[in-house]
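HOLO CASE FILE
Compound: zinc ion
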Amino acid sequence: MILSGKWVVTFQRGVGLVEDGAVLVEGNVIKDVGPKERIVKENPGEDIIEFPKSVIMPGLICAHCHAYGAFARGMPLKVEPPTRFVEILERIWWHLDKRLTLDDVYYSGLVTAIEAVRHGTTTMFDHHASPFAITGSLERLAEAFRKVGVRANIAYEVSDRDGLDRAEEGIRENVEFIKRHQGDEFITGSFGLHAQLTLSDETLEKVVEAAKGLDTGFHIHVAEGVEDVFDSLKKSGRRVVERLWGAGILGEKTIAAHCVHTNERELRILKDTGTNVVHNPESNMNNAVGVAPVVRMMELGIRPALGTDGFTMDMFREAKVAYTLHKLHMADPRVMGADKVLEMLYHNNSELAAKYFTKPLGKIVPGAFADLMVLSYRPYTPVHEGNFPWHFIFGMDASHVTDVVVDGKFVVRNGELLTVDEEQIFEEAKELAQALWDRL
Ligand SMILES: [Zn+2]
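Model generated. Tokens follow.
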């Protein structure tokens, strides 16, 4: 099929804006992209779906999120409100995740994937925890993402916090899932670790051993709160990035979420090891943990990706917050242009996704997976290659998303979700959420 639009934004190099453009999709892959006139002429008889006033863009990638947190929305807090990061973990997230059943995990995955794809997100990197329902949890999540039609890389957060048996079970869950999904085009695995503050040297040794030969990196929270730094110094005499580096956790395929409390030396280690950093600005603001040194990272040549940490499923909003936060933080309006935000959102997320999927993602190029979103966007100022990022930040949001194609198939068409009955799923999810809240 051919999808044509007023603009096609390829992100092949820079923005890659094609006016009156078209995308040729064959099976689950993009075959060609360029001016509509040429694509139509060269492919006679091909079905054409026209979006004459819309923008066609690559589907968005969320580089770090937690579907398991879905039922926290509106959850009653039955304890004193947390005052700092570790209390947020203990009183909210670890309170919730210990009570999750495999059915809760499945429905959290369904509602998260529904919300994500409705906001134009077609690929997610999910970091999962359900310490009393570990075995089989990643497969239930995979089932949920597949059913809704969202591509995903999934990891289980190994941690010592609930004892060594559960740490071992988490390791097995990662290993089995990664093996089972090797070569899978739609769902892949990575090796999840919670954070250095809940991992002993012995467990770190075990995970490095278990990951051997799996062609995977680790997906881990790094220096999210300052407590992580204190804990690392106390345990090892080294800061977080240094401890993880020494343990063999960093590398080209490792995903280091947050990296808020990292100094210059640590940033250089992240750069030299090729470790992927994921910036989650809204979550960091919400947890009051600080601001990641993203501007400095980019100066050093680190290529931070963008994620939501599950705070939202809206990557448009995350991009807007990344755009404003660093200016305020550094008291300098020059430090974060819209072009830099789109570099993170598109180029860096695409680069990370390429390490875990068999074909390119996050750009419209021949040979890439056909994951696209269509936005009904009517600009009242001129649009061109140079100013497109500012149109994206100031003019576009998820409410403009009308259609979403994942793996060559429409998942959202004219605003309607085609793959699942979302009303029914939301009703069933509500019952499970209430039952979970009753167990808190
Ligand atoms: Zn996280």
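CASE NOTES: The pocket of zinc ion is lined by residues 64, 66, 127, 221, 257, 309 (CB under 6 Å). The first strand starts at residue 2 and ends at 9.
CLOSED: yes
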